[in-house]
Design goal:
Elements: H1 11-19, H2 32-43, E1 48-52, E2 61-68, E3 73-80, E4 86-90, E5 104-106, E6 110-111, E7 118-119, E8 125-127, E9 146-147, E10 149-152, E11 155-158, H3 166-169, H4 173-179, E12 198-206, H5 210-218, H6 223-226, H7 231-234, E13 243-247, E14 250-255, H8 259-264, E15 276-281, E16 285-289, E17 297-304, E18 310-318, H9 327-355, H10 371-394
Antiparallel strand pairs: 1-11, 2-3, 2-5, 3-4, 4-9, 6-7, 7-8, 10-11, 12-18, 13-14, 14-15, 15-16, 16-17, 17-18
Bound molecules: FE2/S2 (inorganic) cluster and fe (ii) ion.
Amino acid sequence: MNVRPLPDLDPDEIDRLLAQGSTLPASFYTDPRIAALEDELIFRRSWQIVGVEPEVRSAGDYFTSHISGTDFAVPVVVARGEDGILRAFVNVCRHRAHFVAVDCGSKKFLQCTYHGWTYELDGSLKSVPRSGEGGLPPFDELGLYELPVGTWRGYIFVTLREAEPLEAAVSGLGEVLDSQGFDFPFAAEHADPEFDYVRHVQPTGGPSNWKAMNENNIECYHCPTTHRHSFSDMYKVDPAHYLHREFDRGVYHTSDFQDRVAQSLGLTGDSRSPGYQFYYLWPNMYLQGGVALGFSNAVERLWPDGVDGWKGEVVSYSVPEAREYPPDVVKQVDEWWRLTVEEDMEAAGRVQAGLRSGLYSWGYTLPDSERNMRHFYRLVWDALSPAFRQRLAAQ
Ligand code: FES
Ligand SMILES: [Fe+2]
């Protein structure tokens, strides 16, 4: 394992802390050496959702994305070839490193807009303006770098380094989603060529370590206080109604609309379904679904942005029928959501300041209300601990 210097932390001590229900040590959120380790052991080797299959239905369809950590960002392009095969490439031209594709669309070839080097949809180099001048290696040595790509229930995943099969990375998620009646509009069995959607991309970001933001995202112990007049007005957040559970590689939480909100949306009796469905998949992905207004499904990812920040992207896929709700209720729900997101980011930013104080080593969590957090700590530590154990063994 090739990792940079590690902070002086005792892995046995961290095991003890986590076993007794403590948080991860504060230094995990502030130390650049931990961030470097996360790049190496988490972000460079995990499968990540970059899009959905309807975005690349036909030969020539492509979209761009990226996989990032604290100290790296790899642009990615996913394209369907003339042979019908879906491929992913590092979106960096072999000439002088410009992107070969931007945004999304459909093309016969991937032509770099800088000097016009042109690649086939299978990544091989097709043509180079003025190549008659010579001086270049053979074209078959100048193809785009290909990346592992896989699909699962209509979601497209890419990884920089295939440390495990995609099936292992989504272990348990299918059962959880099925148990909650999650709708998979992009799954092959729903692959209706008429299926249409509106794709909306919203960039996000905030002033906390990515883990502090994720921890806020996966628990609702904070909802009655932090979201007193937003999320808690919309959804039932008491322990009797709020379901939160862990599974192999993630956690989820779901809840119902408050009764008066459900009534105003016409969601009563048998037609009632969870108002809120939020699924976290290790390390940095979320699926949202159910009766959420304005979209039918969304995929969100977040990445480190320095040690003290994160940036993210919410891609929502709206089905037109999802908008048949009374406009005044939709407006109110939108406002509740806007406030909720604002409150979450502010809370996570204040947490980051507290973690930075130097006077907080670790904290304590509740066994049920914060069980999702405990599971997340375990996933982080399972990924990072081999490096610490290896050092211990070498001493
Ligand atoms: S960088 Fe792509 S053609 Fe020059
Ligand atoms: Fe929140």
